[in-house]
Amino acid sequence: MDNGIHEECGVFGVYGVPDAARITYYGLHSLQHRGQEGCGIVCLDGGELKCIKGEGLVTEVFDSGKLDSLKGDMAIGHVRYSTTGASCLDNVQPFVFHHKTGDFALAHNGNLVNSAVLRRYLESRGSLFQTSSDSEILAHLIRKDSKESHLPRIEAIKEALNMIEGAFAFLILTENRIYACRDKYGLRPLSLGRLGNGYVVSSETCAIEAVGGEFIRDIEPGEIVCIDHHGLRCNKYSDYCHRFMCAMEYIYFARPDSDIEGCNVHNFRKLSGRYLYEEAPVEADIVVGVPDSSLSAAMGYAEAAGIPNEMGLVKNKYIARTFIQPSQELRENGVMMKLSAVRSIVGGKRVVLIDDSVVRGTTSKRIVKMLRKAGAKEVHLRIASPQLIRPCFYGVDISTVEELFCASRNLEQVRKELGVDSVHFLSKEALYNAGHRSEFCLACFTGDYPTDLYQEELK
Amino acid sequence: MDNGIHEECGVFGVYGVPDAARITYYGLHSLQHRGQEGCGIVCLDGGELKCIKGEGLVTEVFDSGKLDSLKGDMAIGHVRYSTTGASCLDNVQPFVFHHKTGDFALAHNGNLVNSAVLRRYLESRGSLFQTSSDSEILAHLIRKDSKESHLPRIEAIKEALNMIEGAFAFLILTENRIYACRDKYGLRPLSLGRLGNGYVVSSETCAIEAVGGEFIRDIEPGEIVCIDHHGLRCNKYSDYCHRFMCAMEYIYFARPDSDIEGCNVHNFRKLSGRYLYEEAPVEADIVVGVPDSSLSAAMGYAEAAGIPNEMGLVKNKYIARTFIQPSQELRENGVMMKLSAVRSIVGGKRVVLIDDSVVRGTTSKRIVKMLRKAGAKEVHLRIASPQLIRPCFYGVDISTVEELFCASRNLEQVRKELGVDSVHFLSKEALYNAGHRSEFCLACFTGDYPTDLYQEELK
Amino acid sequence: MDNGIHEECGVFGVYGVPDAARITYYGLHSLQHRGQEGCGIVCLDGGELKCIKGEGLVTEVFDSGKLDSLKGDMAIGHVRYSTTGASCLDNVQPFVFHHKTGDFALAHNGNLVNSAVLRRYLESRGSLFQTSSDSEILAHLIRKDSKESHLPRIEAIKEALNMIEGAFAFLILTENRIYACRDKYGLRPLSLGRLGNGYVVSSETCAIEAVGGEFIRDIEPGEIVCIDHHGLRCNKYSDYCHRFMCAMEYIYFARPDSDIEGCNVHNFRKLSGRYLYEEAPVEADIVVGVPDSSLSAAMGYAEAAGIPNEMGLVKNKYIARTFIQPSQELRENGVMMKLSAVRSIVGGKRVVLIDDSVVRGTTSKRIVKMLRKAGAKEVHLRIASPQLIRPCFYGVDISTVEELFCASRNLEQVRKELGVDSVHFLSKEALYNAGHRSEFCLACFTGDYPTDLYQEELK
Amino acid sequence: MDNGIHEECGVFGVYGVPDAARITYYGLHSLQHRGQEGCGIVCLDGGELKCIKGEGLVTEVFDSGKLDSLKGDMAIGHVRYSTTGASCLDNVQPFVFHHKTGDFALAHNGNLVNSAVLRRYLESRGSLFQTSSDSEILAHLIRKDSKESHLPRIEAIKEALNMIEGAFAFLILTENRIYACRDKYGLRPLSLGRLGNGYVVSSETCAIEAVGGEFIRDIEPGEIVCIDHHGLRCNKYSDYCHRFMCAMEYIYFARPDSDIEGCNVHNFRKLSGRYLYEEAPVEADIVVGVPDSSLSAAMGYAEAAGIPNEMGLVKNKYIARTFIQPSQELRENGVMMKLSAVRSIVGGKRVVLIDDSVVRGTTSKRIVKMLRKAGAKEVHLRIASPQLIRPCFYGVDISTVEELFCASRNLEQVRKELGVDSVHFLSKEALYNAGHRSEFCLACFTGDYPTDLYQEELK
């Protein structure tokens, strides 16, 4: 898949487990694929919220000393993809808020669509924002009436959640509980697990497994779960009842060992590959998946087609932020660092190339060229998702429509420009079948946005 | 002087000079003695406020690439002593605030005394705080009425400044101007200079000199100076008219090459040394000042006394944050890293030891011991300030009264416990004379606080 | 595979290509899997050998500024696995030697068996060693007679090469040429390629491809290739003619996109998997390979068996040196960071688990346990290599015989202790077939060492 | 003083004290002024020499973990000024050598004059050098005959010391003792102290004091002291008997709290200042010393002249390697980072400016300009050393003769170009008097080199 698309975040929380910050560190480490640009952990240490955050990977931001300084048995954490738009580290989460009625911290995965409206409203009531992040808005909404009323906090949060529109999984840490909630459309995943005598919540189940926890269930769309010394208390703050899980979670973002709403990601992808074959079979010698996200789909295609699945593209595992990119000149001379095509595997072969999606088309072009240069006789591109033609407003950082390769090209143009012998994009139906479900958010493929978009977001 | 006392901050701002962030970097570097724990720069780059900040020295937080990324001809910066009480980097300044009426950034040196009251008031009006810093309060005050009125901003700022009580030098950067203001008591210094076709403001004049600027004048107590394309516009927001400059600025914090309200710091200290001699002469062979802050006073004493000023104590210049402190055992075996007494200078001599102040007494005791061990026959301690007996509420991080060595001991007890042959503390009168002025804040020496203290601050 | 086995090094050299150090950087980056502990580059810059080396990954040791400081069109580089036994950085290569007859640099992959004898000999002739590395010995041998004779250098090198016994690929950089040579047994790989108007040499062909070069051929066992302004000159320094390539290169070390002596590594592994099935078929539901090194063999097994190849084990890609390892207690509570078993894939399944080798058995045990815990009904272990029972003296850092799990257990004991339902190790014949060759060094599987071992090495 | 002159090194050793590496760390930290570019420690840990070294300050190269890994009660360490000419870290000391007769490590301060001859000789006997450092030569000399004879080691070292010519203080660490030796001319300092039940050796006494040790005596010129379980054994390896201590040690390099051959450095400098006044008195208002090295001399001048010594120049303490230097343009606009002249001190004053030496003249010119710009009415330059006119071959990195400002100008030219009202350089006689001694190496002032220079060194 191209580099032009990114999930924005992952969240992880621990309640009632000793050394919660350390558990959160391991949880975030397993969610690292959801965001590599920044991360943070807030824990409740002696009644006080303590926070450490920074730019970079979990292994870069935290060292043993820092982790040791975060004590207590409640913590939430966050990994973030992008610090774009950030002034300083200000947008790295969790955010901590100080208030006479009690301090609290907040971690958010997703994107709101009515943030501009809400900001204006809140500012007119006295709010002053310190970040450009949507995530700050919820905090102001929760606290906006705290002077006048003695609403139990859960009521304030519910009311606030009903005011925000968009995609989110929120974790809120107060001095005695953790709240976990998902948007009513169910756009972003959030799962609940048991760990020891306590609980964990995580954007993906892989992190629950990684810390030795036991998956309980997904948080429901429109649900808010309150975890405190009473145990779990579950509330719906909305009666809306659809399940518009973002299909890109299955297609690209999530780790293959995660289950999302009852469906394993690897299995989903493998089935996609199978359907790809069924929808567009082609005479070929080998199947080659683009590592790492398309390897499952390639397995599926190869099995269905009965032709060998080969490691025709190899990825360098050591690409790091500090890697010195080859100059344009070197790249033109063939210096290929991230991926390489294997001549002795693809040479003289008719190759079915499996990728998960096409965003700007540049990476696909480059890969096809590499395969040709390495001797591939034919290249048949099979994409395990429909054409990306519309932007996402729910937290997926897809390039603008202008940059979306398929938005302005018909299939033949796509084929020609990518330089392949044939091309096929998976049908929407196949996605539903692969996920064994009848609802999805497919807005980036169709333009059917499950939420109101608020005109100002479209400009 | 002991390690138990610290200034909290320094601020620096540049208006109308190309590469303002770079100039600010050099300015902050010259104010580094006012705070080594964190620093930041915000500049106006293409209409947008860009910010970089971090923990550590200016030379640690900024590298060439980061500095290059901060373009434009307006910037403000901050160095800070302590990140105590900070959740994360949240308390490192400048702070950036986002608001529909315009973004702005703020840098603050000092401490408010009515912050608890104001927080409560602002929270009841909808404010949500993200730091535990006093400095955030001013921002909320400035913006609190912005929905209802179209007051020119200067009016909003003036009104806000009239609500806060305490010590401050504030710099505010908006998208077209810089505001610089000092508290009406004149507790913290702030100076104005010309640089090229623009202006600089700085906590100390040494930084104006360092960047090649020309000192114009000090910002007045109760004054707010607005710098924009019209040039300078000066306003008083208060008619209060005293000049309670913090005496510790002269005694300890400021760089000797700075001038504060018309008086050079080295000259002040040297005169203090002279008065020390006049107040408490003693038969002795040599004068030894504790480096670096007491060297000027030692010069003054020696000249007045007509006995040699010697380098009997030498400071290791390479002490860094990463220095591995000797264990208690090694320290007891005599490992002395920061200071060493010079046997061949003090051996067999009657020494007048000059220090700027006594806080917890521990450093003084250690130095006296070192001198004795190095062979000093007599040690006569002369302190270039009165006894520290009360806490400071204006931004100087003095230990609590319980820890203040002189608060609970008479002069003879002090002498005995420090192990010296005689001791003298400079009189208040001498401070006035050394500064050629009739007003000072001497609260930490006298308990006469120039502001109301608000009961809750005293607990 | 277990963590108990490691290749020691990779070498890369560039002749006659502008910005040779930068090309070497990219080459080493593609050889990073052969050694992550240290690396270095020496280039010929204005007639002088310039060197930068350090501990850590290529992306950690080099930044853009350092790379820019290494100019010229000739360079050699090295990545190294272990700095064990090293005093300081002294064992990080390339080594640079200064001599009146000309400076030279040297990079070495492999291990000598007569180093103790040679050290003694050389010391008795006046040599003084500054490292504990075998690699230094060759340099002393080359220079040992340089005072007396005017042998062309190639003769000195040939003579030296004939004195050393063991496994090696050596690169030597002098002020006008690069020498590349392999041991006469052919134990370690070394390949030659063309790049622009110049040449590259590399431990693996993947790095030649990565820098845009074109593979020419492997350096022959017992061959020394001299590259200078005359082009290539090829010499045999030995008439010995066997090809005892280390089988572990195919089984584990090399990247799947590399070709070694005409055989692609992925293809080798896939064939191994196929033979594994043929040798020991078993009724099962899915095949699961241990990532990353056993994925090719798993593909082969699955294809041959006609059962699905699934991603039942997922590897966290973000494991870094700075990762804070979970405590024993957390590990016992199930915290698994590097690998995780996927419940929804393996649950209730009969699993064929493919791994490349078994060293100490600990990792295998842990993986089997994970699979069981994730619900696998049966686990049939298939190892794509014979039992490891003897130490390697040729540069592979295998644990001692005592630690080799299979050395002291029969097959049934192995099966029982690993906790699997069945186990099979690939036959030696299958290895020959997979590699389409009749010779290999299989010493670690058989104890048949192709070289004399010199008694002192056996202690 | 100008930046054009540098001492090359400092050495420190500990025998028979627990945690010797840690003591060495503190010792090196007190010698840090002798070299900031690199440092290292070798200790004897369980019979094995362990070494850690790196580029940068002691506080940068070592952290607590590294220090903890160096156990044992014998260690030597080194700080080094320059890594010029170094390939990699190869020139950072101590060097470790491996040999059948025993490993040993070596740290060296100084410079040999016959290194080229000795290298040639040793290479003809089979030596192969891995550094471009003189210090490696001694090791080869010591070991050169080790095959033939069973000389006790001390004899081998003595013989080797008699072959080398030049300036040196050497520490040699073997598996049971430390050897400390000085060149027979006495050019470089080396002092011996007692610490607990063991011993310390150090380039300067300040480090002995800093670790709590007790100064015993200086190592004599031509002496080798062997420290082992028998205690101290002292030997002369040469009967030459002069004491040509490098005068620059007193004038500039050494810390003011060090004593060198019985004379305290601060006292030496203060006396120099006094003689400066006596030799060239001038009507003036204030004395200003260039910090830090000229402050003692300024004290002396001021006392003798009876005019005030003022802090007219202030140095920024926070200059670090990572400091981003101001561009040429900014410098021309007056950005002054390292030093600043204090207007309110020097304005309108006749200033006697004291500096320790003039190398290239550039810094002096800049300082004089600064003083003038800050309003100094007259500037009278007094240099506390004679004119530097010849290069040093003994380890002081003075610029070449071409760059030496005074080498090609008479006094009036010097005065004019530096822009001062008068100038005076201290006489050689005054140096002898200040040091209370009749011998010095003044070669850089006179061209009278105490050693043969070997023609090849002069080219």
Could you describe the 3D structure shown?
Four copies of one chain form a homotetramer. Chain A has a seven-stranded antiparallel β-sheet with strand order 3-2-4-1-10-9-11. Chain A has a six-stranded antiparallel β-sheet with strand order 5-6-7-8-12-13. A five-stranded parallel β-sheet of chain A has the order 17-16-20-21-22, with helices on both faces. Chain A is globular and about 70 Å long. Mean pLDDT of chain A is 90; it is low at 83-87. Helices cover 29% and strands 25% of the residues of chain A. Chain A has 17 helices and 22 strands. Chain A is of the alpha+beta class. In chain A, α5 (135-143) packs across α6, α9 (265-279) packs across α10 and α9 (265-279) packs antiparallel against α15. Chains A and C meet through α1, α2, α7, α9 and α10 of A and α1, α2, α7, α9 and α10 of C.
From the N-terminal CA to the C-terminal CA of chain A, the straight-line distance is 27 Å
- Structural class of chain A comes to alpha+beta
CATH class of the largest domain in chain A: Alpha Beta
In the CATH hierarchy, the architecture of the largest domain in chain A is 4-Layer Sandwich
Oligomer: homotetramer
Give the count of helical stretches of chain A: 17
- Bulk shape of chain A: globular
Instruction: Tell me the number of structural domains of chain A.
Output: 2
Which range best describes the helical content of chain A: under 10%, 10-25%, 25-40%, 40-55%, 55-70% or over 70%?
A: 25-40%
Query: What can be said about the biggest beta sheet of chain A?
Result: 7 strands, antiparallel
CATH topology of the largest domain in chain A: Glutamine Phosphoribosylpyrophosphate, subunit 1, domain 1
The gyration radius over C-alpha positions of chain A equals 23 Å
User: Which stretches of chain A are low in confidence, meaning pLDDT under 50 for 5 or more residues running?
Assistant: 83-87
Return the average pLDDT of chain A rounded to an integer: 90
